[in-house]
TrEMBL record:
This is IS630 family transposase. Pfam families: DDE_3. Transmembrane segments: none annotated. It comes from Saccharothrix lopnurensis. Coiled coil: none annotated.
Length: 190
């Protein structure tokens, strides 16, 4: 019911609704992927063994829109508000942002920025821990399936591979729409 009211209000304002999430890619968290070898031999996948990490903040809207930023520092209010500002500028209209209840999203700095930019961005927090309701989680899963962090040799290379994958997804609107077709997030396809 809350989604219906939100979508009606967004439609009346000529705004769009975007689901936001952040995630991290770690080189030591994923297996090195699949490979091949001649019959009878075990495939060997060479990895560096280094611990590398990049963070991603992304947003998807059911009408083909995908925004993202890749960063190596911690997730802070400055990162969050810069991302919201980027979304608002690129959307060229008001954006209703649906996000998890992360402490950064609820913090003083984020609230102050949102009050100052109320005509551009409005934040709606999801119920308690409920990642299954966020279509952006499907983008995160797609990213982790397709960007093999354990094969990167340095943080710059991992960040480059991540950006390249996300830019590719931006140019594949049918795949972005597909995130909203999963049964558990179908409600978000407005």
């Amino acid at each position: 019911m809350r989604t219906t009211r939100r979508s009606r209000r967004a439609k009346a304002e000529g705004a769009m609704i975007a689901w936001v999430d952040q995630c991290g890619l770690c080189s030591d968290a994923a297996p090195p992927g699949r490979s091949w070898a001649p019959k009878g031999r075990t495939p060997i996948v060479r990895v560096t063994g280094k611990r590398l990490r990049v963070n991603i903040m992304s947003a998807v809207a059911s009408r083909d829109a995908l925004w993202f930023t890749v960063f190596t520092e911690r997730f802070t209010a400055a990162v969050f508000t810069a991302f919201l500002d980027l979304m608002a500028r690129q959307a060229d209209r008001k954006v209703h942002v649906v996000a998890a209840r992360h402490p950064v999203h609820r913090g003083k700095a984020a609230r102050a920025w949102l009050e100052a930019n109320a005509d551009r961005v409005e934040l709606h927090l999801m119920p308690g821990y409920s990642p299954e309701l966020n279509p952006d989680e499907l983008l995160n899963a797609d990213l982790k399936r397709n960007v093999n962090a354990s094969r990167a040799h340095n943080v710059d290379r991992l960040a480059h591979k991540t950006r390249r994958f996300l830019r590719r997804r931006q140019n594949q609107p049918h795949l972005v729409r597909g995130y909203f077709r999963a049964p558990h997030v179908h409600y978000a396809d407005i």
